[in-house]
Design a protein that fits this description.
The complex is a heterodimer of chains A (535) and B (84).
Chain A lengths: L2 H11 L4 E5 L2 E4 H17 L7 E6 L3 H12 L3 E6 L4 H11 L3 E5 L18 E4 L4 H11 L18 E7 L7 E6 H14 L7 E4 L6 H13 L2 E4 L6 H10 L4 E4 L1 H9 L13 E4 L6 H10 L4 E6 L9 E2 L11 E5 L4 E5 L12 E6 L6 E2 L3 H7 L6 E9 L5 E6 L4 E3 L2 E3 L1 H9 L4 E11 L3 E10 L2 H13 L9 H22 L8 E5 L12 H6 L3
Parallel strand pairs in A: 1-10, 3-4, 3-5, 5-6, 9-10, 9-11, 11-12, 12-13, 24-25
Antiparallel strand pairs in A: 1-2, 7-8, 8-18, 13-14, 14-15, 15-20, 16-17, 17-19, 19-20, 21-22, 23-24
Helix pairs in contact in A: 1-2, 1-7, 2-3, 2-5, 6-7, 13-14
Chain B lengths: L2 H13 L20 H15 L10 H4 L2 H17 L1
Helix pairs in contact in B: 1-4
Classes of the chains: A alpha/beta (535), B mainly alpha (84).
């Protein structure tokens, strides 16, 4: 099924139910269908042809959904874009996908694209909520005064590219991942089946809409007849938790970073949330202590851990929530319709329990990277299988466990070392809140093991403040001497712990202390900034 | 250096994208300078620089909208802390 057909089906079945909403209002399925249809007609009138790219400057607003489906109803390719891109990144993006139209949503309706876009200015549509522009588009499509819409509405086919999603990789230039209607619809169907998602559900959107996870959740809930509520900017975790209560939200999902903020800064665990049934975790690993805490304090909450990449639309595996407490390190079994292989360096399947590269086969594997044939050939083999670059192994129940990136393996003194092994040892040291281990270039070792560490508040600043109070009223102002002494004590503890737990050649050669690890907007570690040091 | 000048320096060094912020009353959220990641960075920096604990209740638009409101919040928190 194509994505435009999925909305049409929901609009027929549940015309009056709310499809997408914010605090300021909602669009029903019938309204979402009608508005996106009107905007599609307007795009076609303005000369947008099937297969053209339509840039959607996404925001947390129902108009984002209108814009996406308008592109699909015009058989065009939707390209969700991050409106906060700087001028250079924006130019790079526009040159790469060459949009034929620009749809501006939410806070980005006032963007000035003059001199930046190459398409005719009348193909810039600013979608204000309940906008005159959009209604005018609808009237123009129906009215007699406007130019006629050329020919019958084009129909996208399953194999056509539906969206190009730019990946925010930790290194290198962003690449556009071309996903077909079939790619996205197959994952949507699998998610609705395995979660399962029902028409009475409501989902709170926290992640940005230019991320593939946001796109997928929108598609899942619209296809299932459920409501997507947009949370806005996620600036204040307490406000998000208040929304969960007020809108009687059934499911929310995000990265471990989102979950940590909701728990630590939003008091999620003490909030009264009778409707909340599911918490989805993607894009990283929730700390085992956090999982134990959630299971203990919110036993009725199902925690759905899933794994995939943008390149597989974006889901490949999901863990049965009932197994999470027992195996917090697993990302679960392949979703319906998808096969997951673990291969060695020669491309042979390894025996169960052994680690190798995770390779994905199924209808979810991307069409390719947009206009990057060589990159596509590196990622997708002759059998149409996606080589993820992730390392993993299957346990005896058929659940996948991730073991880092192929590229992240540290090659030190001829040995290949998984950084996760050293991170595990470091996490056991009292006073360490977060850590990441990387290989730094070293003239003799090849790579040198270095640890980047964030200390617990109590172990670092807090302990210093306590000592300062005793010395005479300087509470809250950490004395430099005390801080240095604490730091030295922690470093000594790390050294002695590693000496006990790790072989000599696996000891970190340097430990860098950070107030907080540098992260990208998607919550993943910013490797270049990490390598530059805490400064 | 005043709290306001320190906050302004931090915002300009770490968060401002399209040229430095000069107006300390500028709404940093509407100006799209503060996103959720930047907000957390600010909170960690404030806690470490000024030795105050930002309570979850205090993490609100009223306190974090502009350089001025953050500076006022920091001064209030420091005063409350030394009074305890």
């Amino acid at each position: 099924m194509t994505l435009d057909a999925a909305l049409a089906a929901s609009a027929r079945r549940w015309p009056d139910r709310p499809a997408v909403s914010t605090q300021s209002g909602a669009l029903s399925f019938a309204e979402l269908d009608a508005r996106s249809g009107a905007l599609a007609a307007r795009l076609r009138q303005a000369g947008v042809a099937p297969g053209d790219r339509v840039a959607v400057w996404t925001d947390h607003a129902p108009e984002t959904a209108v814009a996406l489906w308008a592109a699909w109803k015009a058989a065009a390719i939707a390209v969700p874009v991050n409106g906060t891109l700087g001028p250079a990144a924006r130019a790079e993006f526009l040159a790469d996908c060459e949009p034929a139209a620009s749809l501006l949503c939410g806070r980005f309706t006032d963007l000035d694209l003059a001199g930046v876009i190459r398409h005719p200015p009348e193909r810039v549509v600013r979608l204000e909520p309940r906008s005159a522009e959009l209604d005018a588009g609808g009237q123009a499509a129906a009215g007699a005064t406007a130019a006629p819409v050329p020919g019958p509405a084009p129909l996208a086919r399953d194999g056509d590219v539906a969206a190009i999603v730019y990946t925010s990789g930790s290194t290198g230039a962003p690449k556009g991942v071309a996903l077909s209607h079939r790619n996205l619809a197959s994952v949507v169907a699998a998610v609705i089946e395995h979660v399962p998602v029902g028409a009475d559900d409501s989902y709170l959107m926290l992640v940005p809409m230019h991320y593939v996870h946001g796109l997928m959740q929108l598609l899942v809930h619209v296809t299932a007849g459920a409501t997507v509520h947009f949370a806005g900017d996620f600036l204040f975790p307490r406000d998000v938790v208040a929304l969960l209560a007020e809108r009687r939200i059934v499911e929310v999902s995000g990265t471990p970073w989102h979950v940590d903020l909701l728990v630590e800064r939003g008091d999620l665990l003490s909030a009264e949330l009778p409707a909340l049934r599911r918490l989805g975790v993607v894009g990283g690993r929730l700390a085992p202590e956090r999982i134990a805490q959630l299971v203990r304090e919110r036993p009725a909450l199902e925690i759905h851990v899933a794994y995939g990449q943008t390149e597989c639309a974006p889901r490949a595996t999901a863990l049965d929530p009932a197994r999470l407490a027992r195996k917090p390190d697993s990302v679960g079994a392949p979703i319906p319709g998808v096969k997951v292989h673990v291969l060695d360096e020669q491309g042979r399947a390894v025996t169960r329990g052994r680690t190798g590269e995770v390779v994905i086969e199924g209808p979810n594997v991307m069409v390719g990277y947009w206009r990057r044939l060589q990159d596509t050939e590196r990622a997708v083999d002759g059998l149409g299988r996606l080589h993820t670059g992730d390392l993993g192994w299957f346990d005896e129940e058929g659940d996948l466990h991730l073991a880092g990136r192929v590229d992240d393996l540290i090659k030190s003194a001829g040995e290949r070392i998984a950084p996760q092994e050293i991170e595990r040892a470091l996490r056991a040291v009292p006073g360490i809140r977060e850590c990441v281990v990387v290989g730094a270039t070293d003239p003799s070792l090849g790579q040198r093991i270095e640890a980047h560490v964030v200390l617990e508040r109590e172990a670092g600043a807090g302990a210093g403040a306590g000592a300062g109070a005793g010395a005479g009223g300087s509470e809250g102002h950490r004395g430099a001497g005390d801080g240095a002494a604490d730091t030295a004590a922690i470093l000594a503890r790390i050294r002695s712990h590693c000496a006990r737990e790790l072989p000599l050649q696996r000891m970190p050669r340097a430990v860098h202390l950070w107030p907080a690890l540098p992260r990208l907007a998607n919550g993943k570690i910013d490797k270049p900034r990490l390598a530059a040091g805490p400064g | 250096m005043s709290e306001s000048a320190q906050v302004l320096d931090f915002v300009n060094a770490r968060l401002a994208r399209n040229g430095p912020v000069r107006d300390t009353s500028l709404d940093l959220m509407s100006a799209r300078i503060i996103d959720s990641m930047a907000m957390l960075e600010l909170v960690v920096w404030i806690e470490q620089t000024f030795g105050v604990r930002v309570q979850n209740d205090d993490l609100s638009a009223a306190n974090f909208r502009s350089v001025d409101t953050m500076a006022a919040y920091i001064r209030r928190s420091m005063a409350a802390q030394s009074a305890r």
